[in-house]
């Protein structure tokens, strides 16, 4: 195998100068092929078919490929050995992407899958002309686009004589037309008498590049006169042959000679037999049988479901050349599109033309009038266009990609249960890319990361924390309650978990500035002059790149993993014994583990607010299970569990979208925008006209759209995580009340509600009293000078940490740009002075004391310092990331788009989500709280309080 790489390097030339540049070109061409499928579907009035070779007159599963006993020694490689025989699948087809009558002028094709073993197969694809009409992939796709969906001579002529020259030039278009005319002018009477040539070259072990062909075996009867009146005569003719005898082809190879006469990169040049003789190496036999029997028809249907790709082979037989390299991405995309595992959302021409102009107008307008000061419906349109701009420039793919492509096994079929169930680890949400967004995949980026080790401790993060973050006086967010703080932590635990090294294995050290308080890094440990805590586990990059890539321990999807866990073992452990569908509860509470922390999907940073949320949604899961059992008695416990998980996860997503977010971003424009995300726009003709003109896909809620990743594999991002650092929401102390008479039970500090103590406290207080106590208390405002003191010194995993310092250090070391660069990367105007950042003189003075310039300001500090829009609980800069990622989490997830339907959720389950909300969840499990919830809002707004009257009885206060 030593020569394989040499052959590859000596014969292949990458478009754009590098494998990665070429890969990006091929990804765009793959999307073009999906568009061709859509156009062909419209022309053929049927379902999605292959972009090319849509109609297959013949498909058989029982073929055999046998190599000749006298196979030349030079051609013995891998599975190609003398006398070796393998089962094969064969598909014979017409080349058009539209299923048309067999008598139409067309090329014919053959696809063969040779099954060597369970782990090895080889796909051979060939067409009935010695050369391709296209030199490379660009020409191939340009021709396919020009002719896609063209039914009738006028449309075909327009495609070939107008569209094609515009795409490739007059001379190239003329050559391609002549090539195709020569290939299709001949009338084909039988698929058994055609010769099929490979499109381009491939390696053949140490023999180097070859092309192959399949020609009729000696003794094959000639083709009869075709029956032009029968649209399926090729099938009937082949069936008649197979009814009486085998049909066989001879597999031959032509060996590479030189780049002039046998080029690898130019697929339009014929390898002539006089230069590269066709050497017979094997015989492909389709055994005699009844092609129209029920068994044979079933086999043909299975063949139609297969996805052939020349890259389904081994590296010894790796395809070569530009056209072949493009086929890997194009065939995978086209196949996934056809089989309903990958989707394409076409943007209307009016949107492509008008949206950029409208976006530029709003960008100009926003210099003087920010979007949030516009009338609500104009603000909505402004946000829609802003989101389009952010999608275009602020989705960055960090996952490593294969470039150049390598040979691969035929992908395993999608496990049938996972078509209607969420997997435990988030895999198979995107059925065409099973690992996308699953546990263990990388965090993406919205902004290019900045790696500056020289600035990791500049300015000292302890100084930043003490002078700018530390809570001096509790600053409440009076429009919210503490349930809103518990909720966002409950959500973040579903989305994000960076793996850390074990304490002591690999640590970050932050020097303490002079005059700092004594610091202990471990309980009972010595006083030290540094803060030390476990470092995140970075992913090593090829070539020794900076440590800026990190994996997520949980899935990136909105799948309720904080409740259910991220692996099957955890999920099954949390369920009722003996395979029950419900989650285990003890007297309505989560069962406690040996450490006092309860058993649930995610238990880090555990406190009483998290316990309340986990308990509430564990009970909700069980309520859904009971309802499903009652409504569908035949449904098994396994299906009930997975359906209930779908329902609860979707309900959580809906609550966050339609209730928590409008509570913390309390404006009419945001309410409209978020309802638009889930339910579509208001029934207002002017709003709908604007969306129709500029973003037609916003005319429905995401549950009624197709999954759309906007050209970048789905993941959560490091920048998104930086935006969601909302620890100031947590108070340092809490008053606990009973809800009947408003009697105060006790006052406790946050650390008294943390860790194992949380479960003791919530069981003593009761869920209803806990929810009431948090419902009437305000969280902290997300601003400077309001970071909880309780989080400045607490124990986690055997370490004592200051979480405010950890937050600053993590953000810097993960390469999130500093605040001003962060703004600029999101299309916002840079600030040039500290006075622009904060309206408060004392804060400005401290900023100047800590930072040498505004360019140094930490992202978290800048986001806290900003004066947010009226009604906003966090900054407008942070909101830019939210605009992009909040909708992305919905639109990328098939269980919240194309599979958000009664067939998957059940009618009861879908109705449960549509009718449900945070209020209904609370009242289902604590109905006694009905009189206390806000009348005109959701449960994240302040609740009505019950105060003790002078006579000792209850007294409600609004």
TrEMBL record:
Source species, domain of life: Bacteria
Required cofactor(s): Ca(2+)
Entry keyword set: Dioxygenase, Fatty acid biosynthesis, Fatty acid metabolism, Heme, Iron, Lipid biosynthesis, Lipid metabolism, Metal-binding, Oxidoreductase, Oxylipin biosynthesis, Peroxidase, Plant defense
One Pfam entry name: An_peroxidase
Gene Ontology molecular functions: heme binding; metal ion binding; oxidoreductase activity, acting on single donors with incorporation of molecular oxygen, incorporation of two atoms of oxygen; peroxidase activity
GO BP terms: defense response; fatty acid biosynthetic process; oxylipin biosynthetic process; response to oxidative stress
Signal peptide from the UniProt entry: none
Protein name listed in UniProt: Peroxidase
Organism: Streptomyces poonensis
